[in-house]
Structures are given as structure tokens and as C-alpha cells.
Amino acid sequence: MFSRTLWSSLVLALLVTPAEAALPDPAHCIVENVIVGDSNGMQIGNGFRVMVFDAANNPVVNSHVVLAFNGSARPYTAQVAPAVASCPNIFAMTDAAGTVVFAPRMGGYDNTPFVEVRADGVFLRTVRSRSTDLTADGVTGAFDFVHFRNNFLNSPSAAETDYNEDGITDPFDFNIFRMVFLNDIPGTPCP
Question: Does residue 2 have a pLDDT over 80?
Fold first, then answer.
């Protein structure tokens, strides 16, 4: 027969259920407006940051954040750790502060929001994307330079070459493009 202590322990174990995992709340999450990537995986600026919080505004630790590329921009098949590519997506896990920073290797651009950002399957928002590999051919090369030069000289308000997101294609953007161009590490864009 069960002792009184053992019986009480069994009842308590059945009544106490594990706490539900915190679910991301899009209203409290912070997602940048534009993903800026390149062919090298060099972190441009502060990288693309996603901060995941629950309804109580607490950070969601180890949240699975996915960048789903649905437009003409494409991630490369190899990414900078801790991010991983699963074509046409890039994913990584949040840290103890609920934050993940991407330095995406990618090509092409979308001046309209086509990249879906999700955390644990919860849709957060869509964002625009741009890369120094403007032609999405796996390299920041001569054709990309021609495109950049044309925007720099003739169309400085073109969003796809505004890598520092200050609203204009200027010498600061040229410096970013130049660093990637001179240190290019070719990659393979996702199909």
C-alpha cells in the first residue's frame, strides 16, 4: 500500500504541469527593416538583428528564427555560423537575450519586402533585402560594380545600393562595396 507521503507526491506530480514555452509575440519583437548582405558574409553595420520577446516582453531564449527568401534575392548555400542555410531560407537560434544577429551571404535585392521573418513558426514581418552581389551570381564582381557605379553617379536614391541605410548611395556605401569586392569569397546562391 502507498504511504501517505508517496501518495501526496504522486498527486502533486500529476497536478503540476510543465510551464508552456514562451511564444514569440510579434507586437513585442524587434526586426530591422532591411537585410543587408554580401557574398563574403562580412557583417555590414551591426548585422541583421532580430530580437524575440513574448507577450510579457521577456526574451525568448533559443527561438528558431527563419529568414524565408521569397523574392529575387537569394541566400547562398553556405552561411556564416551560427546561421545555417536550408534553401531558400537562413535560420539561427536566439541567445540568452532573445537576440540573433545574421551576417547573411546572399545575392540580389528586393526593394519591396519579400523576405519573411519568423520565430518559432510565428510570422513577425516581411523585410526588404539587398546585397553587394547585385546580380545574384555568387560573386561581388565587375557587373555588380557597373550597377553600383551607375547608381552612385546617376541614381543615388536607388535603395539597392544603400548599404548603410542612410537613404542615399554615397561614399560610405562605396567603402562597403569596395571592401567586399576586394576580399570576395565566391559562393553558390540557392536555386
Answer: no
pLDDT of residue 17: 37
Domain extents for the chain?
A: 19-182
**CA-CA distance, 148 to 158, in Å (whole number)?**
10
**Separation of alpha carbons 121 and 123, rounded Å:** 6
Give the type of residue at 118: R
Helix (H) or strand (E) holding 79, with range, is none
- CA angle centred on 134, ends 35 and 36, rounded to 5°: 15
pLDDT band at 21 (very low <50, low <70, confident <90, very high): low
Burial label, 156 (beta-carbon count in 10 A; 0-12, 13-18, 19+): middle
DSSP letter for 107, please: E
Instruction: Sort residue 12 into left (φ over 0), alpha (ψ -120 to 50) or beta.
Output: alpha
Question: How do residues 129-163 score in pLDDT, each as one tens digit?
Answer: 999 999 999 999 999 999 999 999 999 999 999 99
